[in-house]
């Protein structure tokens, strides 16, 4: 049976009962509405640890649009049955008051990561992510913590956080899990109509097209003019398509195999904001 906890005190009591100090703990933080992407993180953690802990918490401080927070899908019962099927050992389901018991004036600054791509389009988002992940790491005290490459810039933020503040945890990045169509699994896909899911394929298709053009020696300027034309004749809107260094998020105009580059895209379909990326080889 999966153990359900709601407070840090319950986590401590659970750890005491299982002699935590003798165990390796893997931790998968999520906002719920679990899908194959989340399941892949749980499976990886189970392979590499004695106990796997998952948290489900729709973190208000990382939403820069109140509407996005209100409409974020919430399916705790389905989530619990997925976690049970995957063999997750413990799930942490805190209330907002538990995570934000006191007013929190702490501001984290992730430098350039806050000024480009997601940082630019979602002001304050990474401060909220950094705060909640720091709190979770203190409460759950894992040996390894698992994040998806789906949120590539978030991974860079978390690495800066854990390295910069010396959290004794190993950060593991797991590949993007996609539907057969190429659409990246996302909790927000649940808000799309069947038609919207078809329209959303443009994000992955644009990444693949841009990737091929980069390998053919084209500049991002040329590529963007093609991709903008594609979006103009679609029912989706493009916020950004950038070629970046996957750690620093320095922006490039052309392919360089020595620069650990990734292509990142964001935009909207049916008022749902979606992001995706691919790492170049
Ligand atoms: P979320 O619940 O959206 O905050 O996601 C929780 C974790 O699952 C994050 O580390 C995400 O990057 C990861 N994740 C979400 N979607 C995918 C996916 N399609 N493939 C791999 N990991 C994912």
Care to describe what's here?
The protein has 281 residues and is α/β, with parallel strands linked by helices. Helices cover 40% and strands 20% of the residues. It has helices at residues 8-17, 36-48, 66-71, 76-86, 96-99, 118-121, 125-140, 152-164, 194-199, 201-215, 220-232, and strands spanning 3-5, 25-30, 51-56, 90-92, 144-148, 170-174, 236-245, 251-252, 261-269, 272-279. It has a six-stranded parallel beta sheet, sandwiched between helices. Strands 8-7-9-10 form a four-stranded antiparallel beta sheet. The chain starts with a strand and ends with a strand. The model has no long low-confidence stretch (mean pLDDT 97). Bound molecules: adenosine monophosphate (AMP).
Write a concise keyword list for the protein shown above.
281 residues, alpha/beta, four-stranded antiparallel sheet, 11 helices, globular, binds adenosine monophosphate
Main beta sheet, described? 6 strands, parallel
Task: Give the SSE string.
Answer: EHEHEHHEHHHEHEHHHEEEE
The order of strands across the largest sheet is 1-4-3-2-5-6
Q: Which word captures the global form?
A: globular
Helix-and-strand structural type = alpha/beta
User: What ligand species are in this complex?
Assistant: adenosine monophosphate
Radius of gyration: 19 Å
Helix content: 25-40%
What oligomeric assembly is this protein in?
single chain
Between the first and last Cα atoms, what is the distance in angstroms?
42 Å
**DSSP strand (E) fraction?**
15-25%
Strand count: 10
Mean pLDDT: 97
Number of helices: 11
């Amino acid at each position: 049976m999966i153990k359900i906890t709601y407070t840090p005190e319950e986590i401590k009591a659970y750890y005491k009962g299982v002699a935590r100090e003798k165990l390796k703990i893997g931790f998968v933080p999520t906002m719920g509405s679990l899908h194959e992407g989340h399941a892949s993180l749980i499976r990886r953690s189970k392979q590499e640890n004695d106990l796997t802990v998952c948290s489900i918490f729709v973190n208000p401080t990382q939403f820069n649009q109140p509407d996005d927070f209100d409409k974020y899908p919430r399916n705790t019962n389905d989530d619990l049955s997925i976690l049970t099927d995957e063999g997750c050992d413990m799930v942490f389901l805190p209330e907002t008051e538990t995570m934000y018991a006191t007013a929190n004036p702490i501001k984290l600054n992730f430098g350039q990561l806050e000024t480009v791509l997601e940082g630019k389009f979602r002001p304050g988002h990474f401060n909220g992510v950094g705060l909640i992940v720091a709190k979770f790491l203190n409460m759950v005290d894992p040996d390894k913590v698992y994040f998806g490459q789906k949120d590539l810039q978030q991974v860079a933020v978390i690495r800066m956080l854990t390295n910069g503040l010396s959290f004794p945890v190993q950060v593991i990045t797991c590949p993007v899990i996609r539907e057969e169509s190429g659409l990246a699994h996302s909790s927000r896909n649940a808000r799309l109509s069947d038609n919207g899911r078809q329209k959303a394929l443009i994000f992955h298709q644009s990444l693949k097209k841009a990737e091929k053009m980069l390998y053919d020696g084209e500049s991002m300027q040329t590529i963007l003019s093609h991709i903008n034309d594609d979006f103009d004749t679609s029912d989706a809107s493009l916020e950004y398509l950038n070629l970046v260094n996957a750690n620093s998020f320095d922006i490039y105009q052309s392919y360089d195999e020595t620069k650990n580059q990734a292509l990142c895209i964001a935009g909207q379909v049916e008022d749902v904001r979606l992001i995706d990326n691919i790492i170049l080889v």
